[in-house]
Amino acid sequence: MPSSREILRYIYGLERTGIRPGLGRIKKLLSVIKDPQRSYPAVHVAGTNGKGSTSAMLASILTEAGYSAGLYTSPHLVRFNERIRINGADISDKDLARIAARLKGVEPPEGVQPLQGAADGPGLSFFEFTTAIAFEYFREKKIDIAVIEAGMGGRLDATNVLRPLVSIITNIDFDHMDFLGRSLAAIAREKAGIIKPAAAVVTAEVKPEALAVIKAAALKKGVLLYRLGTDFAYKAGKEKNGLSFFDYSGIHAGLTGLGLGLRGPHQLKNGSCALAAVEILQRSGFKISGSAVRRGLKKAFWPARLEVVRKRPLVIIDSAHNPAGAAALKTALRGFRYRRLILVLGIMKDKDIDGFLQAVIPLADRIVLTAPKTARAMSPDGLFMRLKSQEKPVFEGFLRRLKSQEKPVLMRKNVKAALKAALKDAGPQDAVCVAGSIFTAGEAMKALGRGN
Hints:
Layout lengths: L3 H10 L10 H9 L9 E5 L4 H14 L4 E4 L11 E3 L2 E2 L2 H12 L21 H15 L4 E5 L16 E4 L7 H4 L3 H8 L8 E4 L4 H14 L3 E3 L5 E8 L2 E7 L4 E7 L5 H18 L6 H10 L7 E5 L2 E4 L5 H11 L7 E5 L7 H8 L5 E4 L10 H9 L7 H7 L6 E3 L3 H11 L5 E5 L2 H10 L5
Parallel strand pairs: 1-5, 1-6, 2-5, 6-7, 7-8, 13-17, 14-15, 14-17, 15-16
Antiparallel strand pairs: 2-3, 3-4, 9-10, 10-11, 12-13
Helix pairs in contact: 1-4, 2-5, 3-9, 3-10, 4-5, 7-8, 11-12
């Protein structure tokens, strides 16, 4: 059997095919291995932001309720294995190598390129092959239920072969426009593609243009749609000992004084969506007590989502990578206490860089621009030029400093060097926040010795 390193080299080699939306290839591969995704019930989660956090909270609750809960998410921060988990434990190197090697060697279905590494023409994508590994691993381990996060969009995403008990669409915003469309309605149509007959839908979306599409899709499929603020709601409480407390008023019942381990006001929306899904699962026969809900929310952990990794100076790592995520980050940062804020930013070229900058730059006292190790990253020089091009009034104070001798902007060629510069500049009462991309967050975590 090949080693895990050899298998990972093969899997990453599939990235040469790029992003290739469509269900034909994954359906044919899964049919060869007898559709493992049909051997367990599932919850399917899509949305522009918050789908990973929502999935993590729901999986944590299910684990605390005594179920064997699979969790499939993407991308990973440090190790590939993070994508595939059961009850919080990553897939082992041994299991990953064994299952991937077997899938690599299966007789390819018609229309799919052989998986022996041939480079002549497109075959399965990286994400399609990874999804098949996750589905097969969950079948082998005889899980009770899977929580599956869509990779991008939903309608043509490789995960959209599921027949879920519940579908969750956290929200709709602008991201991946080259693939999903350039209007909220177009993006919503892609996300709403996960809606299936006999599976109720939960959403926190409120924007009329996007919500109308979700409503229409649910009506067409003949399923119930449960909306945050209409069918279920939450009331924020005070933070205490690193937990955000809130009351949940549910579809059928409510809970008060819930402590949430994930930081930021936006996580209360995500947590409420997870709880609405719990209520639907309860009506489907899952036994999930109030105490399991409380433990699951309190223990829920999703790395690099407003994660505090040091206290003096305060160091926060976040995966915000689009304007909506940046706006949530901005709101959350205002809830921390610090003297100065130093931002470490590495952003992808294909993202709305101006929109991201407009959300977070007004908070900054110093910025360190950098680039993670991916061809998609905007160079520090490129980010600097985009920063200088901002002319809106909200930037006037920052631009004045930019043109003075204070040198509030630094540029470093990699994330490790950028983080080092930020920490060197930060005093004990200051804060350093790393953001802009999950790739930037992952490299920062690795530089700080968190993860393998």
